[in-house]
Amino acid sequence: MTSLARGLEVMGTLSQSDSELKMPEISKQTNLSRAVVRRCLYTLQELGYVESKPLGFRLLPKVLSLGQSYYGAKALPQIAQPFLEQVHLETGESCSLAILDGSEVIYIARSTSRRIMNVSLNIGSRLPAFCTSLGRALLAHLSPKELQNHLSKEKYRPLTANTITTISELTKAINQVAKDGYALVDQELEVGLRSLSVPVINQQGSVIAAMNVGVSASRISNARMLQNILPVLRNAGKLLGEQTSL
Amino acid sequence: MTSLARGLEVMGTLSQSDSELKMPEISKQTNLSRAVVRRCLYTLQELGYVESKPLGFRLLPKVLSLGQSYYGAKALPQIAQPFLEQVHLETGESCSLAILDGSEVIYIARSTSRRIMNVSLNIGSRLPAFCTSLGRALLAHLSPKELQNHLSKEKYRPLTANTITTISELTKAINQVAKDGYALVDQELEVGLRSLSVPVINQQGSVIAAMNVGVSASRISNARMLQNILPVLRNAGKLLGEQTSL
DNA sequence: TCATAATTGTTCGTTAAACGAACAGATTAA
DNA sequence: TTAATCTGTTCGTTTAACGAACAATTATGA
């Protein structure tokens, strides 16, 4: 059903943009003809998903109600929120929960501090899995075959000087995460950003999400993260996992 | 573009359901033929938005990334979260932020307590505006013409014995809210649920959202809400409004 | 201010994509 | 095993999406 796919592509493009987009701009980004984009936008407008403003088109809050519930979104973030806030309170740092979708992680719940540096992160945000602690914590619990499948599909650009980009090194790092039970990633995604993650394991023993604490590299050293934050994070992740059987 | 609309309808149906849905079920709920539903689901599956499970189809987390950013969703919940958590801490009650979409309110940010009664509320959730404090706080700042337009479009079923359902009484209640600067709704949505809301007004003086505290009616009286919670909520709403110029 | 460009909105014959009915395979229930 | 239900497939028909060309509107800039 091509027009459904195209419409969703238009929505996706709008979703990724910070500002309103004009039709030719959307047309360019999606490689769809102007007429197609026009028809999509018209339909989406009729349905209340987008709005036409002087500066272009933008999504309306109605899109939120689509994302409201994927299977489990109802339950997990709801249950997790108090744990995230607990970690936030105890450490003073922002704490998030994420799951894996293809080669990316998606944030499904957060508790953030006021002094957050990367304001653009939000529920539903995506980041590459390979260079984030959340991603590595999640990847670490795939079978070797699945892991290689994941890793071989992607091409890895270095995002900072620290970013690991070779498959062999990545495999090594991820195996280490599996052993340790946590993932510490030091400024591989962004200079100045240090992040520690643990898997959340449910009663059946499967990894259902990963929980992390992200800090400013200048404020907290790797050693202090492992000393002060890891125990708190581990405890919260464990408690959360025990509460859910999803 | 009918097939886009139909696809979104299918997504919407899946989104509202608690469990997986089979094709005939979706077909019934959407009044679309099985063949159409099949094609929609096939396309959505290809795109990674839904997944076919033994028990039926369900949405995948990818839908979250659609909802990730409507214009302002990036900014406002982000800014608001600390304020919501502050209110939550000071009052011990769950605190939410919502905006108006048609005749419904949509939650865009929350800080909840562990002992939440109504677990099904989440970011992106919708409730009727007319019988919620959030809705009334938002409706109170429409122009009289817009308000009548809104009110006249809907038919009001009583959800509890307390629910106001006549347009004249609603208008009166909403005008009172405009005067008071807060909305207190006592068990009109659900027996046992009491809710207090204030508008969030930005630097330009327009209402950009409403903030509420919801409590169990058995725990906290109306008088105590106004005495203890209203000042906290008002203060937080005011501070939040001052921070944003959206 | 006017002219130019850029964006949005319309129309219409063509084409392809969506349609649905009918059938076949697979899965579940009794 | 037999019904019953759900999923997947095929194919001729029809409708809805297409795109090119044109018109109207709105910005941009000299």
Helix-strand blueprint:
Two copies of one chain form a homodimer.
Chain A: H1 2-16, H2 23-30, H3 34-46, E1 50-53, E2 56-59, H4 62-67, H5 76-91, E3 94-101, E4 104-111, E5 126-128, H6 133-139, H7 144-153, H8 167-180, E6 183-186, E7 193-201, E8 207-216, H9 222-243
Antiparallel strand pairs in A: 1-2, 3-4, 3-8, 4-5, 6-7, 7-8
Helix pairs in contact in A: 1-2, 1-3, 2-3, 5-9
The structure holds a DNA duplex (30 and 30 nucleotides).
What does this structure look like?
2 copies of one chain form a homodimer. The first copy, chain A, is α+β, with helices and mostly antiparallel strands and 246 residues long. The first copy, chain A, folds into 2 domains: 2-66, Arc Repressor Mutant, subunit A, CATH 1.10.10; 76-243, GAF domain (Beta-Lactamase, 2-Layer Sandwich), CATH 3.30.450.40. Chain A contains 9 helices and 8 strands. In chain A, the strands form 2 sheets. Chain A has a 6-stranded antiparallel β-sheet with strand order 5-4-3-8-7-6, with helices on both faces. A two-stranded antiparallel sheet of chain A has the order 1-2. In chain A, α1 crosses α2 (23-30), α1 (2-16) packs across α3 and α2 packs across α3 (34-46). The longest helix of chain A is centred in the last third of the chain and has 22 residues, at 222-243. Chain A starts with a helix and ends with a helix. The model of chain A has no long low-confidence stretch (mean pLDDT 88). The interface between A and B is large, with 63 and 64 residues. The first copy, chain A, binds a DNA duplex (30 and 30 nucleotides) through residues 1-3, 22-24, 33-36, 38-39, 52, 54, 56.
